[in-house]
Structure formats: C-alpha cells, structure tokens
Amino acid sequence: MALSPKVTTENDITLVTLQNCPPELNFIADVFKKIGELGVNVDMISLTPSQGSNTSVSFTIADADLDKILSFTSELRDVVKVKAIVSSGNCKVSVYDPNMVNAPGLAAQVFSAAACAGADIRIITTSEVDISLLVTTADSPETVKALQEKFSN
C-alpha cells in the first residue's frame, strides 16, 4: 500500500520541560491533573527515563496558556525544586498517514528531510499513524517544504 502522508502545522506552541521531577508516576499524574484543572490542554508529551532520583518530562501547550503554566511551575520550583525550562513561539509539524503503521523506515525519511532543512527540533512524538516534530517558528517553513517535497507524488 502506497503512502501519501499529509503534512500539517500548528503554530504558537510552547514547549515546557520540567527537570528534577521525582520519578514516581503519581507525581507526574498529579502534575498533569493540576494542569488540566488550570484549563490548559497538553499535546505532545515526552518522559525521560529516570536518572537516579529524578526524571524530566516535556510537553507542549498553546502559547496563549503560558501565563497559567508559569504560575504553576513557580509553585513546583518552590515546593519540590522542579526546574522549568520554557520555550514559546514554536511550530508543531506533523506527518500523518493511516497506513503508516506498516511502513518501516518512514521515521528515518521524516528525520532526514527535517535534517536537510536544518530544522532545530525541540521534541519529537509519534503514534502508529503520526510523527510530530516541534520546531522553531523560524525553521517551520523550510521544514514543511522539505517534508512536502519528500512525500509529494
């Protein structure tokens, strides 16, 4: 089955990375529960393996919700010494195809195209049918162009 991946973008995205988090899943669940209670939608999520007594979790939100997150991350810093690194003004570029589940090597093609565009990748998340790259807004036009050229028929 031939693939015809669709390339889409979403602008005005903030990446939040919480470093020095306790590695217990209950802590991570509590963080996302509180973020939900703030009315903030979370999109891309990446959890690093524990390193000793700490882990890091990264996630994306809309730039418009940044003020809500900053007050929350300040509380985390004061209570449990979690360090927040925030980068706003990014673009999420996604490559989607429902047949991707049976396409070995597609991730390599996506990453190769992004590399050729010189994209500054901030985070990558995947599912069985989607590969999403968070890039700087400045890099998004060239990244999208490279991906579209890669997958045009």
Describe this entry's structure for a reader:
The chain is built from four helices and six strands, in the order βαββαβαββα. It has helices at residues 25-37, 66-80, 106-116, 140-151; strands at residues 6-21, 45-47, 55-62, 83-96, 121-126, 130-136. Helix 3 (106-116) crosses helix 4. The mean pLDDT is 93.
Using the CA coordinates, give the radius of gyration: 17 Å
Main sheet: strand order: 2-3-1-4-6-5
Give the full name of the CATH homologous superfamily of the largest domain: ACT domain
CATH topology of the largest domain: Alpha-Beta Plaits
Main sheet record: 6 strands, antiparallel
CATH architecture of the largest domain: 2-Layer Sandwich
Order of helices and strands: EHEEHEHEEH
**On the 0-100 scale, what is the average pLDDT?**
93
Strand content: 35-45%
* Name of the CATH first level of the largest domain: Alpha Beta
The portion of residues assigned to helices is 25-40%
* Structural domain count: 2
Query: Gap between N and C termini, in Å?
Result: 14 Å
Please give the number of β-strands: 6
Class by alpha and beta content? alpha+beta
Q: Helix count, per DSSP? A: 4
Low-confidence stretches: none
**Bulk shape:** elongated
Write the topology of this structure.
Layout (H helix, E strand, L loop, with lengths): L5 E16 L3 H13 L7 E3 L7 E8 L3 H15 L2 E14 L9 H11 L4 E6 L3 E7 L3 H12 L2
Antiparallel strand pairs: 1-3, 1-4, 2-3, 4-6, 5-6
Helix pairs in contact: 3-4
